[in-house]
Structures are given as C-alpha cells and as structure tokens.
Amino acid sequence: MARERAVTWAWAVLSGLCALASCQVQQQCPARQEIAPCSCQMKKNGLDILCEFTDQQHIDNAMSVLKGKSLVIFYLKLRHNNLKKLPGFVFFGLDIRHLTIHNSSLSVVEEASLSSIGKMLTQLDVSQNSLTSVPSAAYKNLHHLLILNMNHNNINSIPNRAFQGLDTLEILTLYENKITTVEPDAFVGLEKRLKRLNLGGNELTSVPQKSLSILDTLKKLEMQENQISRIQEGDFEGMKNLDSLGLAHNKLREVPARAFSHLSQLNSLELDGNNIVLVDPSAFAGLEENLQYLRLGDNNIHTIPTPALRGLHRLRHLDLRANNISYIAEDAFTGYGDSITFLNLQKNDIKMLPALGFENLNSLETLNLQNNKIMHIPEEVMEAVTDTLRVVDVTDNPLVCDCELQWYKNWIRNLRDKDDEMMQKKRTVCIMTSEHREYSLQSLPLDKMHCAVKAYDPINSRSTSLLTSSFATLCLGLYTVKCVI
Ligand SMILES: *[C@@H]1O[C@H](CO)[C@@H](O)[C@H](O)[C@H]1NC(C)=O
Ligand SMILES: *[C@@H]1O[C@H](CO)[C@@H](O)[C@H](O)[C@H]1NC(C)=O
C-alpha cells in the first residue's frame, strides 16, 4: 500500500515535471499506414484515435503499434466495428483516458480486458452493443472512472453489487436496455459519489426502492419510459439530495399521498405522459421548499389539482398541457400562484376563464391556452397578469370578436415597445359572427364593433379606462378614440 502510494507520488512528480518541460511535444501519432484503418489526431491532452467499420484483428494491430511508447491516448473511439468480444489484455501497456466502444456488436467483455487501464480511465462508453449483463468483473478495477455509459444494450437485470469497485463513479446511464429487475444491493459501492443515474427506457414495473435508498449523493434520477404503474410513500427514501426526478412516460394512474415526501431538495419533477387521473391532496407534501418545475402534461387530469399544489410556494413552472381540464376554479391558483412564471394549459377542454382566476399569478410571464374551447377572454381576467406577461398563446380557440378582447391589442402594442418579436409573429384570430369572417386580434376593428376604446398607458404598462361614462364627449388619450354614445 505504502509502496503503491510512493509510486503514485513519484509518477505525479514526474508528470508534473514533464508538463513543465513540455514532454507533450514527444507525443506523436504513429505513421498513418502503421495503424490503418484506424486514424490518429494530436489533441491538446493527448492522442485521439478512431477505428471505424473494421474488425478485431485490425484493432489489435493498431493497439500493438501504440503499445510501450508512453503515449497518452486521450480518446480511443471504436465505432461501428465487428468486435463481439473484448479479449483480456487487449489494452495492456496503454494509457487510455476515455474509451468508447459503440455500435460494435460487443457482447463479451473479458475480465482482464480493462483492468490494465483502470488507473487512468475516467470515461467508458459501451453504448449500443449486445451486452446482456453488466460485465462486473471487468469493471471492478476501474478505480478512477467518472462516467459509465451502457445505453442501448440488452441488459435485463442488475444483480447485487454489479458495480462494486467503481467507487469514484459520478454518472451511470443504462438508458434503453431491457431491465426488469434491480436487486436490493445492485448499486452498493456507488453510494459515495454517484450524482446521476439513468434507468430510463427499461421495463421496470415499480421503483427499485431498496437499491436506490443508499444513493444519498444522487442529484438526478431518470426512470422515464418504463412500465411503472404505481408509486408509494417511501419509494424515494434515502435520496436526500435528489434535485431532479424523471418519471415521465410510465403507467401511473395516481399520485398518492406523500409519494415524494423524502425528497426535500427536489427542484424538478416530471410526471408527464402517464395516465394520471388522480392527484392526492398530499401528493407533493415535503416538496414545499424547493420544487420549482412540475410537469403533469399528457395525463388524464380533469381539474387543476389545487389542493396538492397549494403550499408549493417556490413553484415557477407548471405544465398541465394535454389533460382533460374543462374548468378552472376561481381559487385554482391561490396559495401558490405567486411564484409561477410559466403556465401551460394548452390542449385541454377549457371553455371559460373565471373572472378572478389569474389574480394570484403575479409573476406570470408565459401563458399557454392554445387549443382549448375558449370563446371569451374577459378583460378583468387578463388585467391581473398583463404587467408581467411576455408570451400569451390563445391560438386555436373559437374566440368571438368582442370588445373584451381589446386587452390583447393594448398588451401587444405595449410589448412591441419592449421589442418582443416572437409574440408579434403569432397570428391570433377571432371570429366576427356578424360578418362570418376572422380578424386578427392585433387589428380588431374596435370602432366598427362600437367598443368603448381604452387607451393604454405605456408608462405604467397597464390599460387604463378612459371612457367610463355614457356621455362620452370627453375624448382624450394617446390614440384617436371614437366616442360612443
Ligand atoms: C452500426 O454499425 C454498422 C456497421 O457495423 C453500420 O452499418 C450501422 O449503420 C451502424 N448503425 C448506426 C446506428 O450507426
Ligand atoms: C374528459 O372528461 C369528461 C368529463 O369532464 C369525460 O366525459 C371524458 O370521458 C373525459 N375524456 C377522457 C379522454 O377521459
């Protein structure tokens, strides 16, 4: 142990001196024909070697040319090859920092294939191959590995201690495998450093609670695109630093009480694309202090789940798109709406907006009501939010051209002063029933409609009613106003 440390120390000093004396200059690619069909480029930190569309024999040959030259191979990329087996000692005598074996039919990784590069390897990518299990024995000496990518393989289970030895690992991704089982001690050894874990695109039917419970350094957990049909209180116990949880595109029908109550640091929760009908009033208990992003789109929710959302006083981004919401209660946003900057209600079944429904949305910047069944948008609904709004989408609604809609014209004119181009391009129309034609909301013929025109005050950026009495002889304002008697 002491000797090993001394050697490591000596090596550190040597490489330090080496860096000072620019030993890097001696790093040089071998002659092109020596390693063909592989190719080599010099990069700042070492060589970048690429071998594509070739086989075991040519790769072995290239490796033997590179051996014993104290070269730093910063990247070794083997892609689209025929490399069913990674044999023992294939990289012996090489210093490889980032190794990629991608789309190469790899199904066997022999125990001694990677151990020789364990001291230097920080990234290993074996994505898009034919692995049916985690090659644990080959991984166990990779004591400096930070990132392990096993996406797009055929792994069907993660047995106990599958990653033991990878005690420095920070990112593990297993996206798009065929995982049905994760044993209780599957991640033992990863509990000190693991920050991101991707189990998305697998065949899990429940949260592998036991295995996850030791991962108290984990920040991001992705389990989207699985078959999870049920979650319950305690499922996420132990992951006390979790910042982001992805459960989109599963089979959840319900968000039960206290399902996430152990995740007090959670900032972002994705539940979109499930089949959620029911959100318990205590569904988000425990998330009050940190939750900012909540995605519930593409579910089957019938009303804004206000009781569950109340108390989420940090919530900024609420996405309820493509549900079956037909009705917004007056108090839909009371108790938590103050911090919301982004609200998406597009593709629902909303017919009416309640007069004071948006009153608590004091920070709202983006409001999406596209593709609903709204015919009227009363001015008083919007008045509460026109100060802060920068984007409103009310396209694809059966809007009737009426005087109430003039808030839009005023608001967008005000926005133009702020140089907001994105909104100006949106073509929002209403239907003038008497003429059987459409008008753009931006060019509503207010006088033809006999509307009492309200001017807007660009300084206070709020529309002010100039005309309140029916005498209507006093015509002031910034714009030509047609008086109505
Ligand atoms: C995978 O590699 C094969 C050659 O072995 C190639 O024909 C195929 O296009 C590659 N697939 C992808 C998705 O890159
Ligand atoms: C949407 O809700 C209505 C009742 O509000 C119901 O009749 C309808 O079946 C629901 N649609 C779906 C797809 O569940």
TrEMBL record:
Pfam families named among the record's database cross-references: LRR_1 (PF00560), LRR_8 (PF13855)
GO CC terms: plasma membrane
UniProt entry tagged with the keyword Glycoprotein: yes
Keyword Oxidoreductase: no
SMART domains given in the database record: LRR_BAC, LRR_SD22, LRR_TYP
Signal sequence, renumbered to the chain: 1-23
Entry keyword set: Glycoprotein, Leucine-rich repeat, Repeat, Signal
Protein name: LRRCT domain-containing protein
